[in-house]
Amino acid sequence: MRAIKSGKMLAAVFAAVFLIGGAGSVWAQAKTKVNVYTALEADQIKAYKDAFEKSYPDVEMAITRDSTGIVTAKLLAEKNNPQADVVWGVAATSLLVLDGEGMLEPYAPKGLDAVKPFFRDPRNPPYWVGMDVWAATLCFNTIEAAKKNIPKPESWEDLTKPVYKGQIVMPNPASSGTGFLDVSSWLQMMGDQKGWAFMDALHQNIGVYTHSGSKPCNLAASGEYVIGISFEYRASANKVKGAPIDLIFPKEGLGYDMEATAIIKGAKNMDGAKKLADWSVTKEANELYAKNFAVVALPGVGKPLEFVPADLEKRLVKNDFAWAAANREKILAEWNKRYNAKSEPKS
Amino acid sequence: MTGLSSKPSYLRVAGIAKSFGDVAALKDVSLSVNEGEFVCFLGPSGCGKTTLLRVIAGLEPQDAGRIERGGRDISSLPAAQRDFGIVFQSYALFPNLTVAGNVAYGLSRRGLGRAGIAARVDELLDMVGLPGIGGRYPAQLSGGQQQRVALVRALAPAPGLLLLDEPLSALDARVRVRLRQQIKALQRRLGVTTIMVTHDQEEALTLADRIAVMNHGAIEQAGTPLEIYRRPASRFVADFVGVMNVLDATADGGTARVGARTLRLSDGTAQSGPVHLCIRPEDIVVRGVGAATVNAVSARIETLEFTGPFFRATLRLDGGDATLVADLSANDVSDLTLAAGQPITVVLPPDRLRLYPRET
Amino acid sequence: MSAVAAAPARRSLDREAWIARAAIAALALALIVTVALPLYALLSRGLESKAGAFVGFANYAAYFATPGVGRAVVNSLVIALASTVVTVSVAFVFAYGLTRSRMPYKGVLKAVALAPLLAPSLLPGIALVYLFGKQGLLKSLMFGQEIYGPIGILLGEAFYCFPAAILILTTALSLSDQRLHDAAVSLGASRWRIFRTVTLPGARYGLISACFVVFTLAITDFGVPKVIGGWYDVLAIDVYKRVVGQQDFQKGAVVSALLLLPAVLAFTADSFVRRRQVALLSARSVAFMPRPERMRDGLLFVFCAVVALAILIVLLTAAGASFVKFWPYNLELWLGHYDFDNKDGGGWRAYYNSIEMALWTAACGTAIVFLGAYLSEKSNRFAAGRMAIRLLAVVPMAVPGLVLGLAYIFFFNDPANPLSVLYRTMAILVISTIVHFYTVAHLTAVTALKQMDPEFEAAGASLGVPWYTTFRRVTVPVAMPAILDISIYLFVSAMTTVSAVVFLYAPDTALASIAVLNMDDAGDIAPAAAMAMMIVYTSAAVRLLHWLGTRGLARRSQAWRGR
């Protein structure tokens, strides 16, 4: 009798041990839904998701949200067994990386014709379609600047002036997509030689390179540094929260990247993925994007935002995504050689 | 094995070998234990006695050899099936169980029922003189009490063989002597075959029916305490059990030469060559000695220590080549008015001299 | 009587050996599947090209040709060594005060010393910026130095590693024999000489262990350097840059392998040292009871109080930050930062997910870890299986969480792997978290088991009782304090862990600790602090419950401990 009782106890222990295995199937829900990987901001997602699910009541969005780098790394790591059906609101540069691995499914969403030409992959059908643009923007802390008697910069060139020594923060292009778009746009805008010369000079003024694209603006907003090289959405978000910052759009032109949508090859819910791709180019969707971004995919939808100049679209430099993707490794190696291997500049 | 062989052999081990890495802990050990017998494994630490006990108990697998109980091969049976009770050196009382819980631990699978178990526990505790402590925890007991609880826990399932691993070594001297008697009485009463491991020769001599003296993983000698004491089979046994004088000598048939002296050996001794000549201190005779007495040796008393029951004298043999220790009764000392520094003639009786081969 | 009585027990006794073997095999297999195979899946990438072809050590060659790599290696070693020296020395004095003095408020001081365990590793980063950043409250204490850089990393790592060092050192120092001290005193040894000849040698192994553990934690952590590292490049950040910034898994695997090296070395050395450790406490030892001594107690109290205050300041800063509307320009008090649902990271749902995950981790993890430690230490069957458990149990400590997370993607998201059903479930979060924190839990269990009389199992077996009954009736009750410690450790670690699970969570399994990371990234620093403090409050509450519970339990079931 005792033996049997003890056996039961042991069985209970093992049940506990293997429960994890069994529980897996319980936790893995069986509902039909479309798996979306995104780097959009949480407060934007809510509105987009509600609107989408209203238009397509049969589809539920299951959203995996993280920073661009993590989402891209996740997607690549899952390459052999993709979990995402659709990538939505992820940098076009990242989508080009996925495309380079042959992970994207070409699809022409309904209503594609209306999209501005530079907002789509030129191939037909396109492998990705843009949603909105985020552009390089300086966050300039007016209170700290006044304390230190630092003038407001107007241009990229201004940032190389000695008065800004140690006051500027920018994202490290090796860890942040925003950082890379800055570097690649400078190179495209100024040309190879002048571009690197500019960065050499800028490097002398950099207080710190951060590992995220939002961080420089956050650091400027909290007065840790005076100037953060960031992007306009983060800048206005910080300003709305009450940060004493001005948004500066350097006059030479602004580098940018695009939030874009693409369908993953072999999507388990292809139908749902296509529905989301369709919805993301609708006027309704673009009107929602326009609440956060000045430049969106459909012409005539974008409207001026507070703090952002009305002619933002015109200020964008030409950004050749294909060139940037093709030269990424080379550019990062060069950047790394010049600025990472060097010891901290003396301030 | 010799002696007490009228009873059937209860446990037989044959050819047991066991190594830990490169160290051979047991080398071809064979022994049999008769039913109801009390056997001690005696030896210095590291001699393999505890390993042998653990092999017999099934707690340590042997590398080679066979263990039989009542003629049945139990060599590969797990400990739980060998029907042996063990008392460990640390007692290994379960600290979270009460004394009653500990004693009842091995009873729960025997279908005695709750009341039956309780009765058995009380009976056992009574037997070792610890009535009414069933509700206490081990930490609340003295060392001697813990030892007795461990003993009755091992005895509770009425095992066929009781194994005791240095059960008294953690106790102070007085308690040890008292418990020694109690263990012996209990063993007699229950008639349970018992093996005890000890490094204490006094314990072994007083408790055991038979002693197996071990050294370097082998049994040097097995026999009754008297045999072991009187006729040690080897120089090691002679040295380890009791006190022994050892003289370097050269034997030649019936005589042995020690320095310039020639000593007679007991009749029938035919050994030749270098030997250790051994004699117990109490076998050295000082009374009724004349110069003509066989094996008379002249010496000088170097020290004389009073130990209570007797005097222990250190004697330097004339010629200064060797010393002997002799135990002299108080009467001898006062009758002969012995004192340190005096010359003395002592006799080494031939029948008390033992020879062991000496390597030169 | 004996022959008759033994008969009914026989059938189950034959079975018990097989149950032990099966349990050992199952646990060894589980560890192979959750530790060895995923690591292989990751590390083998380091030997492959992007296209998956075998390229030998080409990635290593390419990596070492990168400018600046040497500096990152040196920086990593320097900062890990510095963190080790600072943390272990401070922790040693603190632990000495807790165990060897009669200073007041020991309970409170110890609770505060262990409090950093309750906080996600981002919390010290955030708090240090509030305290010592350019707008910091205590900026003047920096004397013009920058917090962004080695000083910040050092402070952050010290905060983060302090509890681990305290746990090991208090255990080591409390295992001391009063008789040795009495002997030394009676021989007229000076206090310094007693310290040198009795105290230090006694705590030697604890000190070495503490050094290894802190070194490993500090060299593999990327949370602190990411937030506050500034210019100071370290290898852990390099993994982050390679994997997250550039999605270069091959080089990521290369750096991971490099990071494994010092940790593996440390652990080999550690286990070598442990093997030589003899039991410090024999059955007859007398527990050390410090005598009151004004001067010593006073000085130690002041020291410990200052350290505890520093820890409290960090925690209180984060707590305070979560209520300030916009630091440093709008100091209005505001509860809005706790409105997590409109922020990155999954909102309150993530918080409840974290609690669920932590509960599963604590329950399953404790059962597995303790059973594994028991079988590997106390069973004598299936030696190869036990060896596998022992080896694999100490590997996870050396694996940075980020590396573990990636390894899990590669292994568990392989369509050919039947276990891929676990991917994107709560189960995989629980498994990865148990594995991530396995080593410390395992070592705690082993320590507790080693303190038990080694003959309990033999005694049980000689009485004809199967091992699992003795395990249940004796081993588990006697080890209950350690078992509860392990469960609490797993719970609070699961609440705070980020690095491994960041790659593994799915939409419906977002976690609070990841929310902290994401909110901080998005500039929602105050909400990040708020969520971090929610984690601290929860873990503290659970600890408190545990304490109250064990006190109640102790009164009943541990009555035997006292006299």
Structure overview:
The complex is a heterotrimer of chains A (347), B (360) and C (563). By secondary structure, chain A is an alpha/beta fold. Chain A has 2 domains: 30-133 and 257-308, 3-Layer(aba) Sandwich (D-Maltodextrin-Binding Protein, domain 2); 134-256 and 322-339, Periplasmic binding protein-like II (D-Maltodextrin-Binding Protein, domain 2), CATH 3.40.190.10. Chain A is built from 13 helices and 10 strands. In chain A, strands 1, 2, 3, 4, 5, 6, 7, 8, 9 and 10 form a 10-stranded mixed beta sheet that branches. In chain A, α2 (42-55) links the parallel β1 (34-38) and β2 (61-65). In chain A, α2 (42-55) runs antiparallel to α11 and α6 packs across α7. The longest helix of chain A is centred in the first third of the chain and has 26 residues, at 2-27. Chain A is globular. Chain A starts with a helix and ends in a 7-residue tail after the last helix. With 360 residues, chain B is of the alpha+beta class. Chain B has 9 helices and 19 strands. Chain B has a 6-stranded mixed beta sheet with strand order 6-7-8-3-9-10, with helices on both faces. In chain B, strands 13-12-11-14-19 form a 5-stranded antiparallel beta sheet. In chain B, a hairpin with a 2-residue loop joins β12 (255-258) and β13 (261-264). The longest helix of chain B has 18 residues, at 173-190. The radius of gyration of chain B is 25 Å and the shape is elongated. Residues 1-5 of chain B have low confidence and may be disordered. Chain C is mainly alpha-helical and 563 residues long. Chain C folds into 2 domains: 8-37 and 339-563, MetI-like (MetI-like fold, Orthogonal Bundle); 69-234 and 291-330, MetI-like (MetI-like fold). Helix content of chain C is 70%, strand content 1%. Chain C is built from 23 helices and 2 strands. Chain C has helices at 2-6, 10-43, 58-65, 69-100, 106-114, 122-132, 150-174, 178-186, 191-220, 223-228, 235-245, 249-275, 294-321, 347-378, 383-394, 401-412, 426-436, 438-450, 456-462, 467-478, 480-496, 512-521, 525-557, and strands at residues 324-326, 330-333. Chain C has a two-stranded antiparallel ribbon with strand order 1-2. In chain C, β1 (324-326) and β2 form a beta hairpin. In chain C, α6 crosses α13 (294-321) and α11 (235-245) packs antiparallel against α12. The longest helix of chain C has 34 residues, at 10-43. Residues 1-12 and 278-285 of chain C have low confidence and may be disordered. At the B-C interface, β6 of B face α1, α2, α19 and α20 of C.
